[in-house]
Amino acid sequence: MKRETINGTWIAGFLALACAGLELLLFLFVPAVRGSFQKLGNENMMFYGVFLLSFVLVFLAANTILKSREFSLPQKPAVKWTAAGIGLLFGIWFLIKLLLNEEKSMGMVLSLGVVETFLWQRIPVFIDILVVAAVAVILLWFWKKEERQRGNLFFYGFYLLVSAAAGYSLYMPNYLQADPLHGHAYYTSIYSVVHGRAYDDLFTSIYGHYALFFRWPMKLLGNGNIREVSAMTALIGGISVFLALWAMHQYIKSSRVRILGALSIGLPVIALRLENYWQVQPLRVVFTCLFLFYGALYNRKKFRGGQTLGYALAMMAIIWNTETGVVCAISWAAFLCYEYLEKKEWKSFQALLFVAGQLLAAGASFAGAVVTVNLYNLIHGGVWNRVATFLYPLLKEEYMTGYLRTDLPDFVSAYMLVLALFLGGVVWSLTGHRFFRGKQGGGTREIHSFVFLASVLGLGQVTYYMNRAEYFNLDLIHVLVTVLLCIFLDQSLPGWRRFWEKQGGKNGENALRRSCSH
Fold first, then answer.
1. Over the stretch 294-324, which tens digit does the pLDDT of each residue have?
2. CA 408/CA 518 separation, integer angstroms
3. pLDDT at position 442
4. Most exposed: 61, 254, 315, 317, by fewest CB within 10 Å?
């Protein structure tokens, strides 16, 4: 009987994921556990920190014991079909429950009338389910065959069309129409900086200093009126989508998956939503897309000065939006350590110095952002602001523990799937890494490094949702989720095609029916 082997790092990852899932259930359904986190401060963020830390510790402990072992699994058809059936049924149940609960997940934002429901929430749920099922069956049917490969020029043209449509649809028509409170504040902060106002305790942007990036372009275009700001915002939004699609393109071979990924990133913006939530779009998405692009570019070229330039981009990200920028800086440091420890002996003093250097560089990105903003202030007659002013309102108690904090949903919700995806991406990227597999490490490929970067970015950026568990805040990681799902789908297609070949090639349909009947 043929058997399939799986290395110990995979088992360690499964154990860590199971432990994390159990911890989430305890937090949601055991009042004493939630109460213990409440005593420490912001219960959501304290839980999420412990959630990630426990995942890391369990993974490291289990991997230390299991990394040198290989486990064999039986390949009996009955066992494989049973496992596949259980997994499929659970996946279908989870997705149906997710759709049924989706409107309930929107919570306070919907009840306050800040934004409206999506278009797919305005039709009967059973129609949504039938459409999703039909699309899945059709795609699986076509993916069983090899496909004709298209040239890069075709895809880049297609990506440009999707990006242009997304930029126009998201930013131009809806500007100051949807979510007008944030929209007006967003524009007012830009207009003030265009006209030379310095930042102080009474004047800050909405969680960042993005207005500095608008100042000189607005001077060139005119006087910073609403039409000019809208046009530049649309341009930034379209470029962001294109950069993310370019990065995704580098790690996917299937033409159909590339097209599906582009539509999945662009379609919700272009056709399936009526309004925009300005806390997220474009504020917290731009540099996530940029770091996907830059990570893919550096991964392929390894050009001189690329590491330093990454931290310079992180500094710009922190200036743009403090929270997402800090995540970009930490993710870039983690990505560089991942690559270094794959090639170097991690127990050496040199490796320790490298890791310490990346932490210092990430800190320098933050310091550089503070200095840059304060230099602008001094040039325009302001004062040198404290770090607390730069971080406003992140250090305000009400921002983290007041009414702005929202409980995590205790029913089947999309964030559960998102957390599993990001943690699974980390595990997948580490299964061949020398640091975790020792001498048995089979070496990692560029795609593993990229998935690691995207997964760490996702685990960091989702903190905004974890604190304020409002459905629209998941928009922040929509691009990351789509890119990772498409990569994993593309990686699984060869196995799907081999399955059909083993069923008898052209007679695969009949063989599949016979297998199911038994």
1. 999 999 888 889 999 999 999 999 999 999 9
2. 43
3. 55
4. 61
pLDDT value of residue 517: 39
Residues of the chain with pLDDT under 50: 1, 506-518
Query: Is the backbone of residue 445 left (phi > 0), alpha (psi -120 to 50) or beta?
Result: beta
Query: What pLDDT does 179 receive?
Result: 64
Residue 200 DSSP code: B
Question: Please, what is the angle between helix 414-430 and helix 77-105, to 10°?
Answer: 130
* Distance of alpha carbon 239 from alpha carbon 235, whole angstroms: 6
CA pair distance 115, 469, nearest whole angstrom? 15
Residue 328 and residue 282: Cα distance in Å, rounded?
16
d(CA 22, CA 24): 5
CB-based contact 277:109 (threshold 8 Å) = yes
Q: What is the 3-state secondary structure (H, E, C) of 444-482?
A: CCHHHHHHHHHHHHHHHHCHHHHHECCHHHHHHHHHHHH
Amino acid at 367: A
For residue 95, the model assigns a pLDDT of 87
CB 318 within 8 A of CB 326: yes
Q: Which strand (E) or helix (H) includes residue 420? A: helix 414-430
* Contact partners, residue 361, CB within 8 Å, separation at least 6: 307, 308, 311, 333
- What's residue 457's pLDDT? 97
Number of residues that make up the chain: 518
- pTM to 2 decimal places: 0.89
383 touches 377 (CB < 8 A): yes
How is residue 405 written in tokens? 């904090």
**Sequence-separated (6 or more) residues with CB below 8 Å from residue 506:** none
Token representation of residue 46? 């304290």
DSSP character at residue 198 = P
Shortest CA distance to 253 belongs to which of 414, 40, 492, 417?
492
Which tokens go with 218?
Answer: 């607005």
For residues 433 and 444, is the Cβ–Cβ distance under 8 A?
A: yes
| The dihedral sign for the CA sequence 315, 316, 320, 325 | negative
| Cβ neighbours for 226, distance < 8 A, ≥ 6 positions apart | 175, 176, 187
Place of tokens 């496992």: 83
